[in-house]
Amino acid sequence: MFVRTSIAALASAWVAAAQTSSQNTTYRTHAAFAFVRTGERTPFLSNGPQTLTALGAKQMYTLGENFRTRYIAGDSPQRLGVQRIAGLSVDTINNDQIWVQTLDEPYLIASAQAFMQGLYPPRNSSTGQLADGTSVDYAFSGYQYTNIRSASQSDPDSRSISGSLNCPVAQTAALNYFSSQDFRAMESANADLFDKLDVNWFNGTLPQSFLDARSAIEIDDYLSYQYAHNSTMFELLSANNTNLTGVYAQLGYLADQIAWNVYGNTSSSARASNNQAISGKTLAGSLLNSFRTRIASQLSLSDGALVTPSPPLSLYFGEEDAMISLAALLRLDTQSPYFRTIPSYSSAMIFELFSVSNSTTTDATQIPTDPSALWVRFSFHNATAAQNNPQLTAYPVFGNGPSNTEIPWTEFEPLVAAIAVSGVAHWCDMCSSETIFCTGVQDSRPDFPDAPYGGRRPKKGDDDDDDDDDRRGFNAKANALAPAVAGVIGAVVTLVVAALVFALLMLCAGLRFHRVHKQTPNLNFLKRNKPTTATLGGFKGSAKMASDPDLALAQNGAAMPDPVKKAGHERVGSWELKQKELGKDVGERNRESLDADDVVPRAVEPRNGV
Question: How many domains does the chain divide into?
Fold first, then answer.
């Protein structure tokens, strides 16, 4: 009896201690990295550029509000939960604390703008005070302006949003799926599906010959938009007991299947293969860079170094290709079949760097110096199910068990580094790209600083089929030329090449150089009363003028004819006379500006499909 009582007492004490410890545990988020798919836009099969719809703007604004509730301010746990990032400005946006990156597509920029309006709404009480005491209200009721970085396809930053752009290797790997036996079997099994589609639905944007399984992603994208905005198409595709029953759902299933194979479907996380998932690899590099620089900058600040703190909140806005690729590389498809589908508009992949502390007195803005105290959590925001389940759903990465949704930073960092594209030169080599920023590129420094702890320096042989990581990574700086030395070498090489070209022209084309001697002008025509042999005879030639009786004619010179009687000035049909008679405004069109001739419509860049 005594033994049982003692065991029960010990058990009660252990449970009480565990509950007390759990209550004192504090989760402190130090950084967040999110990749957000655009809000609803017009389809790619259209006659104009894609634009963000009103529904898409509302989706992004609401998502921005939810992010604000989680990381900045608000007490509503019914949205995305509450995990404050200490130190973030609450009311007024501080662009040094937030990194916003996207492509230079108008609908993506608009998506980022709508999101940021929800994250930092206008301040109605914002005013500016002048020296004379006058108060001036800010425009648009205190609208806050965000620094949104948009990258064109010729900008290296574009690879962080869609690494498959200008990447022939990725595009070739993706297109290989269309020649596989799996695709041919799927195409054969669904041949009758595309026979049911009417090419007139697409308003001339899709030829009849392209109405097949190879265009399933674009077709589903177009019909999804029409299904939501065109009442005729909605009734046609949702009607029962017709030839089109189930066609819309079947098209969506095929589009998901093809997108998974074109962008993801990685059997492992080996860097040497899975080139179709390069978009996910570049996104993984941006993620790793964000967390590493955040840790490094905070530790440098704690040491008293003068460095610029890394933004604690990084927001990337793009399309589904990068999301599917990264999900495949993280093996998220083993946790949920949803990751094998095209994410819905305004869905988000979120990574959080946090620490766990049992002390309430520790400064929440300080990152622990012990690497074992740092953790990473991945969560997914499914916009389709957001109304029923607004909370973020955490998933384990890299094949961990369902209960291991939180992974130590010391374990997460090397796993992500193994799948990430580390820099511009690495991407250019992997893609065999000839884009402008790959021409003569030299990776003189890594994209991210050496991790202060927990980092794994790339070594030869880490990846069997990878090039020398030391050349690309941390040791590349030691082998790189200084910019001044490189400039001198370039100038010398240019001069040598120019000299060789001139030498070849002299030898082969007969090019010769000679000095032209300056001739002394003949001034004999100035000698009066003396015949001369001047060739030119002065500026009037060798003729003797009536006003020059004392000048002698040159030999064989022609005598000046009798002067003609001077007549009055007369020009027949002269515009000057007409102007004088009728006035200068007759027949003259005043032109105030030439600006109209300089206006050229901006060219619309076609979307590069895979």
Answer: 2
